[in-house]
Specification:
- This protein is mainly α.
- The protein has 9 helices and no strands.
- The chain is 72% helix and 0% strand.
Length: 194
C-alpha cells in the first residue's frame, strides 16, 4: 500500500478506537506509519481524511445490509418482507458493544465543531440515499430517479438515523426489524382505510 491507503487504514483504526474529536493527526501518523505532511498532500486536512475514513467504514459495513451473501435475498423488492429483511440486516450491524455507528452520533452531536467532516458527509448523503433505495426496491442505483431520492431516500435515511440514535442510547428498548415492520404495517393500514 502507498501512503494514501496507509493513512486511510490508520484513520479508520483511530476512528474506531477514539472517535472523531479525540483523534489527532499525530495519532493517524503513528497508526499508519506515515508522516504529517502526507495527510495534507493526500487528503488536504485531517478532517477530510477522517471523513473519507468514516465513509469507507460505512461502505465496508453496508455490504452486510444485504445479508450474509449479497444478492441472496428471497424477498420481493419493495415488499414488507424485503423491508423487514433489510432492516434486520442493518440492525444486526448496530448490535454489540463498540458499534461504529456511534461515530454517526458524534457527527450529529458535534457537527458544528466538525464542519469539514459534516460538510463532506453531507455531500455524500445523496449517494447513501441512492444505495438504500436500491437495496429496498431492487432497482439499480443509477436508475433511481431524483424524485425518489427526495422522498423514499430521505424516508430511509430518517429511519436509519433514528435507529442509530436508539441503538446507541437505549439498545434494550431499540426496535428490531419485526417492530419496524409492524409499525409500517399499521401506518399502511391506517392510511388505506376509507
Amino acid at each position: 500500500m502507498g501512503h494514501r491507503e496507509d493513512l486511510l487504514e490508520g484513520a479508520k483504526r483511530c476512528l474506531l478506537a477514539k472517535g472523531f474529536v479525540r483523534t489527532t493527526a499525530r495519532d493517524i501518523v503513528k497508526e499508519s506509519g506515515t508522516n504529517l505532511a502526507s495527510i495534507g498532500y493526500h487528503y488536504g486536512s485531517k478532517d477530510a481524511l477522517l471523513a473519507e475514513a468514516y465513509l469507507s467504514l460505512v461502505g465496508d459495513l453496508s455490504e452486510s445490509f444485504e445479508g450474509e451473501e449479497p444478492g441472496a435475498s428471497t424477498a420481493e423488492p419493495g415488499s414488507l418482507e424485503r423491508f423487514q429483511e433489510v432492516w434486520s440486516n442493518i440492525i444486526g450491524t448496530m448490535r454489540g458493544p463498540g458499534s461504529m455507528w456511534r461515530l454517526s452520533m458524534e457527527i450529529v452531536a458535534m457537527g458544528d465543531q466538525l464542519p469539514v467532516v459534516r460538510d463532506h458527509l453531507a455531500q455524500q448523503q445523496r449517494d447513501a440515499e441512492r444505495a438504500l433505495v436500491a437495496l429496498f426496491t431492487g432497482v439499480r442505483e443509477e436508475d433511481v430517479p431524483d424524485e425518489t431520492l427526495d422522498t423514499l431516500g430521505r424516508f430511509y435515511t430518517t429511519l436509519m438515523t433514528g435507529l442509530i440514535a436508539q441503538w446507541n442510547f437505549d439498545p434494550e428498548r431499540a426496535p428490531d426489524a419485526d417492530a419496524l415492520t409492524g409499525g409500517l404495517r399499521q401506518v399502511i393500514e391506517a392510511a388505506t382505510r376509507t
